């Protein structure tokens, strides 16, 4: 009598491992639910060392983002979590942007950041953040971070999605072929300013 019960429990517990996680198969297709599951997972799928190294801040915004999303860290695929590292040189900025699929929590590790977001009723919530401070940016809302200190700033940002997505406002407007007259009519910027920004951000139109 006890033997069949033992086999039933053994089957139940062994079969649940397959549903514990879905390490992303980066060679397969990706859809709204993420990557399809890798057939065989290893310990390396559940660890990531990419956030040890500072990003390159010698660019237009003097900042770098190093993501550990499902594309870089397939172990988080389907788990609804991810993380990234922010490095900002003095005066560096993470421009106005949104994450359409996740809320964001920032933890300042070094330096000082001025950060904020704009709610859907256009109210601004902003604050100066120091080492050890955290701040939340609700899903889909425009937000930003600026290094207002005199030293390099480092922060880690976590998301409640393995693939939070990002849309940077300036890049969305000025790095593509959206016609200048359309941007002028929808933003109230003058054509000369739009063409200047398109020139800086390599846009056309």
Automatic annotation (TrEMBL):
GO terms for molecular function: manganese ion binding. Oxalate binds at residues 99, 104. Mn(2+) binds at residues 97, 99, 104, 143. One of its GO terms (cellular component) is apoplast. InterPro entries: Cupin_1, Germin, Germin_Mn-BS, RmlC-like_jellyroll, RmlC_Cupin_sf. Residues 49-195 form the Cupin type-1 domain. Residues 1-18 form the signal peptide. It holds the Pfam family Cupin_1. SMART domains: Cupin_1. This is Germin-like protein. It comes from Gossypium raimondii (Peruvian cotton).
């Amino acid at each position: 009598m006890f033997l069949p019960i033992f086999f039933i429990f053994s089957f139940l517990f062994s079969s649940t491992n397959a549903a514990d996680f879905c390490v992303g198969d980066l060679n397969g297709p990706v859809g709204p639910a993420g990557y399809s599951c890798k057939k065989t997972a290893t310990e390396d799928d559940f660890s990531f060392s990419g956030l040890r190294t500072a990003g390159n801040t010698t660019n237009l915004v003097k900042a770098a983002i190093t993501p550990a999303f499902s594309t870089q860290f397939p172990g988080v695929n389907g788990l609804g979590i991810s993380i990234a590292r922010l490095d900002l040189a003095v005066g560096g900025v993470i421009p106005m942007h949104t994450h359409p699929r996740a809320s964001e929590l920032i933890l300042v590790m070094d330096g000082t950041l001025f950060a904020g977001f704009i709610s859907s009723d256009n109210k601004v919530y902003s604050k100066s953040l120091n080492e050890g401070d955290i701040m939340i940016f609700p899903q889909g809302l425009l937000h930003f971070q600026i290094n207002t200190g005199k030293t390099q700033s480092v922060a880690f940002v976590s998301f409640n999605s393995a693939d939070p997505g990002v849309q940077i406002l300036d890049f969305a407007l000025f790095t593509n072929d959206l016609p200048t007259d359309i941007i002028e009519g929808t933003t109230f910027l003058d054509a000369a300013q739009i063409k200047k920004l398109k020139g800086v951000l390599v846009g056309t139109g």
